[in-house]
What we know:
Layout: H1 9-21, H2 25-43, E1 49-58, E2 63-72, E3 75-79, E4 89-95, E5 102-113, E6 116-121, H3 126-131, E7 136-138
Parallel strand pairs: 5-7
Antiparallel strand pairs: 1-2, 1-4, 2-3, 3-6, 4-5, 5-6
Amino acid sequence: MDQSKKPTIAEITSRLIKLILNMPPEERANTLMEIEARQAQGKRRSVRETYFVDVNYATRERVYKGFIQNISPEGVYVETREPVVVGQKITLAFPLPHSLEHAKVGGEIVRSDANGFGVKFDAAIQELLENGQYAASIE
């Protein structure tokens, strides 16, 4: 291939497939994990902090109890066995990390698995997480 012209997406894809097919299985698995990790990083703007605390959350149907596993300014992961629907609007109430204050935050369920679900807040709570000196309501 001529190095002076930019390759087409079809040429790039073809070259990648050939390289992958020539890799040993273990190298394929490692490459896949690296690519998936790189893509997952690109989806989050902030690092999630491990944070274990009870949470009350409400959908249109009713109020539930769960357990926050981690938190970032953009969202949380809630451990629960209750079924949820991706795209569903939700309101969460929980104590703020490093504070005695509580937050009431609106968001949307963006992923769900057998152990719980991920929520993207309607508005980032960076200031609340950093400050933690006042009760907050973001909806």
